[in-house]
Amino acid sequence: MLDIDSLTHRYGGEDDDGDAAVDDVSLTIPDGQFLVLCGPNGSGKSTLVRHLNGLLEPDAGRVLVNGTAAAEDPVAARTAVGMAFQEPRDQFVAATVGGDVAFGPENLGLSHDEIDRRVARALDAVGLNGRETDRIETLSGGERERLAVAGALAMEPDHLVLDEPFTGLDSPARKGLLDRLRDLHADGTGLIVVTHDLRDLLSDAERVVCLADGAVVVDTEPADAAAELEQYGVRVPDRRTTD
Amino acid sequence: MLGYEPGDTPAHRLDPRTKLAVQLCFAVAAFAHTGPRGLLVLTGVTALALASARLSPVSVLWDYRFLLPLLAAAVLFELVTLGPPWVDPAAAVDPLLASYRTLLIVAVAAGYVRTTPARESRAAVQWAIPGKAGRLLGAGVGLVFRFLPLLRRDLAAIRDAETARLGDQRPTRERLATVGAAGLRRAFARADRLSTALSARCFSWNGTLPRIRFGVVDAPALMLAAGLAVTAVV
Amino acid sequence: MSTATDSVDLVGDDVVGNLVRAALLAALMGAFAFVSFPNPLNPAVPVTAQVLGVFLAGIYLGPAWGGFAMALYVLAGVLGAPVFSGASAGLGQLFGPTGGYLLSYPFAAALIGALIHGTDGLADPESVSLPRLVAAMAAGTVVIYGFGIPVYWYYLDTNLVAAVVGAGLAFVPAELVKMAAAVGIVRSEEVQAT
After folding, report:
1. What pLDDT, on a 0 to 100 scale, did the predictor assign at position C5?
2. What is the pLDDT of residue A242?
3. Domain annotation covers residue B1
4. The domain C13-193: what is its CATH number?
């Protein structure tokens, strides 16, 4: 269970593309929920999710992960909330697929047998089973995104956060990733997908939260979302389907 | 270009620490015995090292060909004198032997480069340097291996973009500055994303070390290393 | 979660950030080995940007992490990453004609960093005066040749004059070009220091 309580985050003037402030946001996300977090560029989506596992410290308010403040026990928060960021290419630490997925479990000091088991399971979950010794440079864009997901899954998290996972993927790759996400959700992993583009996601998500200027402006079920979202610059299916 | 390639040669099966010990002891022995007889014996050891990695001496020499002018220059400087007798072959003997010694050490090291993946090297670093320093060096070495190809592609793309707009007409100083600045900017942008990703995956001081383990094949190689070390001191 | 999280000793964000920047700067220096430009003073010896990496390490990472970045560069090259000149690698390079230069880089970068930033905290490179920047790089270059020439002399068993000419003088003009380029980078305002 993730409990975001009056969270505020300010940046000291140095606003990069994704780094926007968050202003007094409260949300409760139960285990196993498939949530889509949307909003235009600069609305604070990336900042918000970085608080979920203690990568940022709140200026005010707090984030409780399973009852403990993320900022106080970052290890617990980071094992409970796995993250795959934008630009997966820049997140890999090893030259091979298996070496990279092992990185997280190694940091937890697990035994080699346990690490091997987790690597195999994580790769299996994203459809990269048996690819342990492949070099990362040889992977396609869709495979790289799925590898980033596997790297997070190897921590065996309760929730998985994906920051703009579909950016730059062609339609078969999008579908491949989406199928894997459905399976993960069916197995009980909570999903939080950050996007400014709702294509493909509305039929599967259970909840849609939309941020604008660092505040929650929409929090609803997908069926009701479409009508409200367009005014906040979010791409909704069936209205505009091409780039 | 010489680099790691997966394989099943005897050298691939050696523990990385064994291979590092052989190289170091070989270099020490080569400096101790730079006479013709010593170098003859060490040539035999080099041939053995290359054979165990299934590397051909010719391909190694080709990969390190840029060294040859530097070595040849050293020999020529001694061979040619600025007055009579103009050519002094006796003076050139020492640099010639020293240049040959360099090539032998480089060739033995090439065997390591070809047969040892980054992951094993990283583990050897953390084994040799315990504690936080070893953790930082080991992780850092792994990241250099991982990001070198990406940054090489960044620089190539930057140069292409520059050339496409006739940037190659500019003076070298300016071209170095533009390529350097753009390369540094990309490298730091990648670094910022990578640091976040490392933290998100609990980058820790006390993680599990990658598996490395001495096996039966290491015994003869370690004996060779010990033998080389002994010859250096007697 | 089954994992006992109490025993995991996380590396602090500052250290992670510095480690990653140092590693990427070392990799960038390796990538520079592939980029050569015509040498305005001596067309026979093309300029590669590698020593520029030593300057940038000291300037942007400071004495400790700049020196560490160069140690990573040398270590990764010894362990097989193709980062040395001609995209080569291996322990043999340390015992080759350019071995002294490689060994000097961590010291040179640390010295440049110390002269520019002092020993407590980093200054913004853009705010450093031009004479200080140039003096620091000149001192670093002295360290590089201070290692490079004697080691060349010792390894190759030549006389000292041959070593100075063969390993030193042929390259010094190109270093001036690289210093000018480093100044250009610092002044370009394109690179965020922190």
Report:
1. 63
2. 43
3. no
4. 1.10.1760.20
